[in-house]
Protein-arginine rhamnosyltransferase
Amino acid sequence: MKARWDIFCSVVDNYGDIGVTWRLARQLVAEHDCAVRLWVDDLRAFERMCPQVDVQRAQQWQEGVDVRHWPAQWPVTAAADVVIAAFACQLPPDYMEAMAERERTPLWMNLDYLSAEDWVVGCHGLPSVKFKGVQKYFFFPGFRPGTGGLLREAGLLEQRQAFQQDAVAQRQFLQGLGVFAATGTRLMSLFAYENAGLASWLDVLAADGYATHLLVPEGRILGDVQRWLGVEGLTVGDVHQRGALTVQVLPFVRQEQYDRLLWCCDFNAVRGEDSFVRAQWAGRPLLWHIYRQDEDIHLDKLDAFLELYTEALSPAAKAAVVALWQAWNADGDMAHSWKVLLEHWPQLTAHAEKWCLEQGLQADLATVLVQFYLNWI
């Protein structure tokens, strides 16, 4: 019989939580023949990346996944063989009782946030708390051997490389989004949280001698873009030009389309966790806007990733990347650090591809989860 999996997702950061769990649920079904229920407390957030979902239904099937609305009043539900609490969300008390009542207790894991910090390797897979004999385990995604790896569907990198080598496919995809960038234009994407440092970056792009076409999917950064442009009511489809910079607003697209958008661009500014990982699979230089946490503990995660990511770069290129990322995550002045970064563009482009391929040699997150379960039983 198929192993039954329950994945619980409490939507906290708009789309990051559901983005990760939706990718994971589909991959477990498609590649590992698992029976997956995905419990989501906010189906309207889910609808943005799965438009066919019916937000009024308590249960429905989407791409082989049994999608359930996680209600305030929990229904009587039998516990699954594997239970994943995504990002430390609290399981319903009645469901926890159902886990304890099973003849064979389930494997219970907390799928934690992604981090490159050294301690993650030592904590991955360790037992955590118990509930009436049901043991919970830490499960940490990561970039190093000994962690849970990164979400990566089978054949993803081969698909990406083929797409990036097909100029016609890229042009047709972009035109489908209403994007008509001139040949030789630097194509960039911007998906970020609110950032006071954006204006200085857009200023330097507008004053550049090289044309840039900036694609901005709907999101929280749009208000800052609108203020810089000095316009009101910036909406999907709007295109504005200032100097060498063209700014275009794109709709919020499905995950597969967003992947291809990243593959088309020469540089990707991303945020959170899901888009951060997908930008790395694009094999292109990137800029990460990390989710802010109390007491600035997010900066430790930022520094840990930068240390790992820039390890193979020349000292000057490393300094340029670190300066840009730190300025972006401190709402700082982006102008000087961007100009310095451009001096190392060829090296950074080659490095992004190399980093992607190196990470692709490690087992992906879904595979590691399944193997963890097989070892456990």
Summary: The first strand starts at residue 4 and ends at 9. Residues 156-360 form a domain with the Rossmann fold fold (CATH 3.40.50.2000). The chain is about 40% helix and 20% strand. The first helix runs from residue 16 to 32.
